[in-house]
Amino acid sequence: METSRSYFDVQRRNRQGACSSGRQDYFSPTPQTFDSKEAIDLDAVTPGQFTADCVSKVRLDQTSVVSAPTHVLQEFPISAILQELDHHLEDDRYQFHDSLLYRCLKEAKFESLRDVFRLSSSGPLGQASKFNVFFPWDCGKYDLHKMQNMQVHEERYCGVLSDSAIAMHFIKFRRLLASVKKYGILPYRKTLVAGFVLSKDGKFNFLTTRGIHRTLVFKYLGHKEMYARKAEDYLGYVDFADIESWYFVRNGFCAIEDAAKIFDAFFDQPGNNTEI
To answer: Is residue 210 classed exposed, middle or buried when 0-12, 13-18 and 19+ CB atoms within 10 A define those classes?
Structure first.
């Protein structure tokens, strides 16, 4: 209880006095935003052009988040969660353990990585933890040996998460709701939403790997587009047409059918993808 109150103190101070505090972060407007004329529409960016120096304009109906593949998103009612948080935004008595977010993230919806991606594999890949990170292509960020040995983990919105982790998500969502409702989207060059592009059959999708809470809040509040850049260390562009040459498909660790399921779990999300 004491921990959650300290979170609320930070949230309240930020909401009420961020502009006067001199802090230069996402939650208060500063002169560090960039000229939007610098941005290139994502559908005009070539694979070799999408680098860390390239700022792109991304439509939010072309955007997914890495912590919520399709089947996770279907079990995680993000719109209802954010609507409830929004409704209680000014109520400091509203604690994280009172929220729908808490109830959802305390319930185990999946048992393994096989469940998360609906994989066919019954081997190491299918038996891996639902929190294992695995891309069938060489994404550039993670050591391939560690990925194959299921030694890379990241949080997903599929429970069961600790109270401290849920409190962190709770506060991030509340702070962002307050900030974006008041100031709109304020893109700072150094803290832009980041990720990489997935391309398939003339369509594309931007997969957010940094700025996940922001992306979900922007969508909930009805914004149509945001600015983004390539995530550090990741390859910037993954084309489904190259599936047979993806590293873990080529070395036989991941069946091509399962590789396609993993790709599609990030690519084929309701309302996403537009013809180029």
So the answer is: middle
Helix axes 163-183, 212-220, angle to 10 degrees: 50
Question: Per the structure block, which two tokens stand in for 48?
Answer: 């070799």
Single pTM value for the model: 0.83
Tens-digit pLDDT profile for residues 71-95: 898 889 999 999 999 999 999 899 9
* Residue 95 structure tokens: 């604690």
The secondary structure of the chain in percent helix, strand, coil, rounded to multiples of 5, reads 45, 15, 40
- Closest by CA position to 141, among listed 247, 269, 260: 247
Alpha carbons 40 and 34: distance in angstroms, whole number: 13
| 191 contacts: CB under 8 Å, gap ≥ 6 | 25, 26, 211
Token pair recorded at residue 99: 């929220």
Beta bridge partners of 227: 57
Residue 77 near residue 242, CB atoms below 8 Å: no
Q: Which DSSP helix (H) or strand (E) runs through 56?
A: strand 56-59
| Span 35-73, pLDDT tens digits | 666 666 666 666 666 666 677 888 999 899 999 998 898
* Pairing between β-strand 237-239 and β-strand 274-275 as defined by DSSP bridges: unpaired
Q: Helices 78-87 and 163-183 sit at what angle, rounded to 10 degrees? A: 70
Encoded amino acid at 73, one letter: L
